[in-house]
Request: fold
Amino acid sequence: MSKRKLINKSNSSIVLSFISIITFVYIVLFEFILPANKFLPKPSTLIEAVPALINDYNFITSFIYTISIVYSVFLISYFLIKWFFPIIVNASFQFKNLGIIFNTSKYFIPLFLILLFEMWFGNSIYAEIFFVLIIVNGFLKGEIFQKSYKVKEEYILSAKSFGLNESKLIKNIYWKSFQPQLFEGILKIHFVVWSAILIYEYVSRANGLGGIFYQAIKFHDLSIIIVMIIILLLIFWIMEYLMNLIKMKFFFWENLDE
Reply:
């Protein structure tokens, strides 16, 4: 456990150091050395773009819209997996190779799904939620199918010696063993979900952060695009850090054999 904490701290330090270096170079290079250019705006111009982002592009509303979908879907997916966990585990025992079907990325290009959803449902928020649910649930179910046999044998034998039937065995041993793995799966797919939802909102011109990118590109507003990228990187890093804290506090045990 301490090793995992050290790795997370090390990764965070590397990311912060990299961002700091890039920021310093960007400020010095484009604010003081290079003249005005068409490629990257001056840092002072980016600062001036922030009020426009908030007032003209409705950033606050769009931020709440997108972040609510992303993390509500993660929460819904976790509880859906919990409720249907006995069925999923039993299916994994009987149809082990079926697990690859749930990993939608192996069969469907996300952009293809986005285009289909956009044609069928437009910029409906319910369609967007359903789209993200497909990605997250497919990945998490695939994780269960691929690793259901990795629950430590000593836990299973010990539970059986106490007379636990199959239902209680799945509930008390398999589920507890998989909780950290499922949260780890959410962390693995975190960036993929953010990327998919931004592309979805861009294509469907939804009211979220992806819709801001569409408007900024449409009006050739480079300053807004760069500010949005910086803000999204910060949001992603903060949420990744908070999710790692949650995992270390509430899902800190490792009961699966690797």
In short: The CA atoms of residues 92 and 98 lie 7 Å apart. The two ends are 15 Å apart (CA to CA).
